[in-house]
Design goal:
The chain has 464 residues and is α/β, with parallel strands linked by helices. It is built from 20 helices and 7 strands. It has 4 domains: 99 residues, Helicase, Ruva Protein, domain 3; 136 residues, Rossmann fold; 90 residues, Up-down Bundle (Zinc Finger, Delta Prime, domain 3); 75 residues, post-AAA+ oligomerization domain-like (Orthogonal Bundle), CATH 1.10.3710. It has a 5-stranded parallel beta sheet.
């Protein structure tokens, strides 16, 4: 069981206890938006005139509504959008999960949709959750109903549809990409749940520090935020003294929330000093080759809700700035991690980031490339660097030969070892030396080659 599973189990257990006391469905289910006005986040997806908004409003055009594949992380509104598509235009709603449903279930829905259309003139919305779990054959079974518009398919997936959904189904649907909710959106979801009659009906208040911690642990997931809030409400209620006046609102403290979600609050302000200090400590620990310290600061950033994409970008920079050519594969690992983190998301992104951080930490270090480009930039800014030598200038246009451009240029591949002895730098920088490889890692081999090359090019060897 992963740490995320443990988090969910703890929150769910507390939440179900409080829901049972109220005799109601879980808070996340009760607070599901009943209209577009209540929906939080996804402004680009739901802008006026967008395909999804037209689908929800029942104005998809004379050809009839398209089906939709909704891709996004948990708790961002996939199921809610499917409900809105069904209810806003008085359509019949059927929900299946690809975990338990099969071809037989799909065909039964299609048959019932035909009867509903022919007898009552109603369209059927089929919401298929986790469609990526369907095999190719199972997805093929959806095609006739989607193509004939027997049903409006709204399929949800947390995996990239380009890899998990067959092309014929993708081509017959609009692709809707949802993103994690912003902190502001999560706060609005929580505030609404605290006051709404469907939610906690003003029976509870939430301390400011508890709210900030709740926003962090939610990680852009509205369902997680509401489940955690309900769990914390149960803890707060259990801690009330006997004989308490029932009209008094119960305060949910940071301690209640920490106990409910089994997740200690990390003192970390993503917009303040802690953000910069911990990020700096991560970089300096990798630079200093202390892998344990680097993993500690990585963990602090992740547990505080730092955007994993920000962390990945910092690791990429460090791979060039601090490891450089001492281990060129560190940059490959870091760039691969950056792209993987964007596709996978949390919590699995922590594993990918850890691999890149460990590689950076344990790799031999060199800042020679970084120092080299800085030295070259300093010369340029100081005004050094005259005209490009005539033999290096472009000669592929009319009149270039008359100007002497390209005259005397030696094509390197025609020379032994593909090294042409000629001047490449401007005259005033003929003796400039910017790159000074170390004797660490792969760069030790580069140092020997650089010395050999400078001899072949007729340049004085670097005394360093």
């Amino acid at each position: 069981m992963t740490s995320d599973d443990l988090f969910g189990a703890a929150s769910a257990a507390q939440g179900e206890g409080y829901a049972a006391q109220r005799g109601a469905a879980p808070l996340a289910a009760r607070m599901r938006p009943a209209s577009l006005e209540e929906f939080r986040g996804q402004g680009d997806v739901l802008r006026t005139g967008s395909p999804v908004r037209r689908l929800i409003e029942g104005s998809a055009g004379a050809a009839g509504p398209l089906s939709a594949i909704i891709w996004g992380p948990p708790g961002t509104g996939k199921t809610t959008l499917a409900h809105l598509v069904a209810t806003s235009a008085d359509r019949r709603f059927v929900e299946l999960s690809a975990v338990t449903a099969g071809v037989k279930d799909v065909r039964a829905v299609m048959d019932a949709a035909v009867r509903e259309r022919d007898l009552y003139g109603r369209q059927t919305v089929l919401f298929l959750d986790e469609i990526h779990r369907f095999t190719k054959a199972q997805q093929d079974a959806l095609l006739p109903g989607v193509e004939n518009r027997t049903v409006i398919l709204v399929a949800a997936t947390t995996e990239n549809p380009s890899f998990s959904i067959i092309s014929p189904l993708l081509s017959r649907s609009i692709l809707v990409t949802l993103t994690p909710l912003s902190d502001k959106d999560i706060r609005e979801v929580v505030d609404s749940a605290l006051t709404d009659e469907r939610g906690l009906a003003a029976e509870f208040t939430l301390d400011d520090d508890a709210l900030e911690h709740l926003v962090r642990v939610a990680g852009g997931d509205a369902r997680r935020a509401l489940t955690s809030l309900e769990a914390a409400a149960g803890v707060a209620l259990d801690g009330q003294p006997a004989g308490r006046h029932t009209d008094d609102a119960v305060t949910i403290t940071l301690g209640d929330l920490e106990q409910a979600v089994a997740h200690a609050a990390v003192r970390y302000d993503r917009a303040g000093d802690q953000h910069h200090d911990v990020a700096s400590a991560l970089i300096k620990s990798m630079r200093g080759s202390d892998v344990n310290a680097a993993l500690h600061y990585l963990a602090r950033m992740l547990e505080a809700g730092e955007d994993p994409r920000f962390i990945a970008r910092r690791v990429v920079i460090a791979a060039s700035e601090d490891v450089g050519m001492a281990d060129p594969t560190a940059l490959q690992t870091a760039v691969a991690a950056m792209h993987a983190v964007a596709q996978v998301g949390m919590p699995e992104a922590r594993i990918i980031l850890a691999q890149a951080v460990v590689h950076n930490s344990l790799a031999p270090k060199s800042n020679a490339a970084y120092a080299g480009v800085n030295a070259a930039i300093a010369d340029v800014r100081a005004g050094r660097g005259g005209a490009v030598p005539a033999h290096l200038r472009g000669s592929g246009y009319a009149g270039a030969e008359r100007l002497g451009h390209g005259a005397g240029y030696v094509y390197a591949h025609d020379e032994p070892d593909a090294v042409a002895r000629q001047e490449y730098l401007p005259d005033d920088l003929a003796d400039a030396s910017y790159y000074h490889p170390t004797d660490r890692g792969f760069e030790d081999r580069l140092r020997a080659r650089l010395q050999w090359l400078e001899g072949r090019l007729g340049r004085r060897p670097d005394p360093r």
